[in-house]
Design brief:
Blueprint lengths: L8 H29 L5 H10 L17 H14 L1 H20 L2 H13 L4 E4 L15 E5 L2 E12 L6 E7 L11 E7 L4 E6 L10 E12 L11 H37 L1 E2 L2 E2 L4 H29 L5 H26 L10 H13 L4 H15 L3
Parallel strand pairs: 1-4
Antiparallel strand pairs: 2-3, 3-7, 4-5, 6-7, 8-9
Helix pairs in contact: 1-3, 3-4, 3-6, 4-5, 4-6, 6-7, 6-8, 6-9, 7-8, 8-9, 8-10
This protein binds flavin-adenine dinucleotide.
Length: 388
C-alpha cells in the first residue's frame, strides 16, 4: 500500500475504480433489486455519488471535476451497469450536458456551470427528443425567439432522463425554423428550471426503473442570451452530436456491464443447476451459449475501449463510438436473453436479476441514437474514410 502514489494518473484511476467497486458492493447491490422493482428514485445512492465526485467524472479538475479520461469513465460505467444500469443513466445524460458545455461553451459558461455540475449541486441532462421527432432531430419544433437580451422558449420535450429530479438541461431548439439546411437554425441552451419550465409527467417504462423519464414543457420560458451554448446561434446540432459521442461510449459501457452480469450469473447458475444427473454446464448446448456470451462480452469491451481511446486522443470517433454502441447493446440484449434460457423458469422469476437485465437491455438499442441509425453513421463514415 505504501508504494501507492495518488499523483500518478494510472494509480489514481486504480484508486477511483476500487472506490467505485466498494460503493457498488455496499451501497448499491443490496438495494438495487427492491428499488428497481418499486421504481423508486435512489436518493441515497445519488447522495453517495455526489460525495464521491461521480457527477464530475469527466469534468476537468480546473472546473472542480475528477478529470477522468473517457477510457476510465467507461470502466466506471461498466462496473455500475453490471450492478444496476439505471444508476449509470443518472450520470450519463448529466455528463453529456457537461461535455457540451466543456467542449463547446464559452469560458464564462464553463466557469458558471461546470463547478455546479461537477459537485452534483445542479444535476440534469439532455433534452432533444420531442413527441414528433427522435431520430430526425432536425424535425424538432421547440422554438427560441429573441426577447431583449434573452430568448423565449416554447415547446415540449419527451423521454427526458432525469426530467423530474434534474434541475438544468441542455435543450435543443430552433432559433430559425426556416433555415436551410435545417441544422443551421438549431441552437443549444442551458436551461435551469424556473417559471415557464416544468416537468409535466413521469413516463412509465418496461425497465430502466428508478431513474425518472419525463415530459418537459416550455411555456414562454425566458433564458438569458448568456446561456446559448458557445454564444452563437446555428451550432446546436453540432454541439449535441459532439456530446453524443461520449453518450454512445457510455451506452456501450453499459452494454458491457449488462452483458457481463448476465454471463456471470449464467456461469454460476449452470454449475449448480443439475439435470439428468449432471450440472447443466456439462451439456454441450449450454456450453455453446456460455462461450458465445463470454466472447460477446470481451468483443464489446474491446470496441468500447477503442472508441474511448479515440475520444481521449481528440480524434473524430463517431464511427468507433457507433460500432461500440451497436455491438455492445446487441450483446447485452443477446446475453440477457441467453441467461434467461439458461436459468429456465428462474430466469422468468422476479426473485432473480435476470428478468431485470432482460427488461433493461432493449433500451440500449434505442437510446443515444437507435442501432439502425448507428449502422447508417458507420456506413457513411466507412465510405468517407475510404474514397476511391
Ligand atoms: C428510457 C428512455 C430514455 C431516454 N432518454 C432521453 C433523454 O434523456 N434525452 C432525449 O433527448 N431523448 C431520450 N430518449 C429518446 C431516445 O433518444 C429516442 O427514443 C430515440 O432517439 C429514437 O427516437 P424515436 O423514439 O422518436 O424513434 P423514431 O425516430 O420515430 O424511429 C422509429 C424507428 O424508425 C427507425 N428509423 C428512423 N429513421 C430511420 C432512418 N433514416 N433509417 C432507418 N431507420 C430509421 C428507428 O431506428 C426506429 O427503429 C429516451 C428514450 C427512452 C426510451
Amino acid at each position: 500500500m505504501n508504494s501507492m502514489n495518488p499523483d500518478d494518473p494510472a494509480e489514481r484511476d486504480r484508486l477511483i475504480l476500487a472506490a467505485v467497486d466498494r460503493f457498488l458492493d455496499k451501497e448499491v447491490a443490496p438495494y438495487a433489486h427492491k428499488l428497481e422493482h418499486d421504481d423508486i428514485w435512489p436518493a441515497d445512492i445519488v447522495a453517495a455519488m455526489k460525495a464521491m465526485g461521480l457527477f464530475g467524472c469527466i469534468i476537468r479538475e480546473e472546473y472542480g471535476g475528477l478529470g477522468l479520461s473517457a477510457s476510465t469513465y467507461a470502466k466506471v460505467i461498466e462496473r455500475i451497469a453490471r450492478v444496476w444500469m439505471s444508476v449509470a443513466g443518472i450520470i450519463n445524460s448529466h455528463l453529456i450536458m457537461s461535455a457540451c458545455v466543456q467542449r463547446n461553451g464559452t469560458e464564462d459558461q464553463r466557469r458558471r456551470w461546470l463547478p455546479r455540475f461537477a459537485s452534483g449541486e445542479v444535476r440534469g441532462g439532455l433534452a432533444l427528443t420531442e413527441p414528433d421527432a427522435g431520430t430526425d432531430l432536425q424535425g424538432i419544433r421547440t422554438t427560441a425567439r429573441r426577447d431583449g437580451d434573452g430568448y423565449l422558449i416554447n415547446g415540449v420535450k419527451t423521454w427526458i432522463s432525469n426530467g423530474i429530479h434534474g434541475r438544468a438541461f441542455a435543450v435543443l431548439v430552433k432559433t430559425d425554423a426556416n433555415a436551410k439546411p435545417r441544422h443551421k437554425g438549431m441552437s443549444l441552451f442551458i436551461c435551469e428550471k424556473q417559471d415557464g419550465f416544468t416537468a409535466a409527467r413521469k413516463l412509465e417504462k418496461l425497465g430502466y426503473k428508478g431513474i425518472d423519464s419525463a415530459e418537459l414543457v416550455f411555456d414562454n420560458y425566458r433564458v438569458a442570451g448568456a446561456d446559448l451554448v458557445g454564444g452563437e446561434e446555428g451550432r446546436g446540432l453540432q454541439h449535441v452530436l459532439n456530446g453524443l459521442e461520449l453518450g454512445r461510449i457510455n451506452v456501450a459501457a453499459r452494454g458491457v456491464g449488462v452483458a457481463r452480469a448476465s454471463l456471470e450469473e449464467a456461469t454460476a447458475y449452470a454449475q449448480v443447476r443439475k439435470t439428468f444427473g449432471q450440472p447443466i454446464c456439462e451439456h454441450q448446448a449450454i456450453q455453446i451459449k456460455l462461450a458465445d456470451m463470454a466472447t460477446r462480452v470481451e468483443a464489446a469491451r474491446l470496441l468500447t475501449e477503442q472508441a474511448a481511446r479515440a475520444y481521449d486522443e481528440g480524434r473524430r470517433c463517431d464511427m468507433e463510438a457507433g460500432m461500440a454502441k451497436l455491438f455492445a447493446s446487441e450483446a447485452a440484449l443477446a446475453n440477457a436473453t441467453e441467461a434467461m434460457r439458461i436459468h429456465g423458469a428462474y430466469g422468468y422469476s422476479k426473485e432473480f436479476n435476470i428478468e431485470r437485465y432482460y427488461r433493461d437491455a432493449p433500451l440500449l438499442c434505442i437510446g443515444e441514437g437507435t442501432n439502425e441509425l448507428q449502422r447508417l453513421i458507420i456506413a457513411r463514415q466507412l465510405v468517407a474514410r475510404n474514397p476511391v
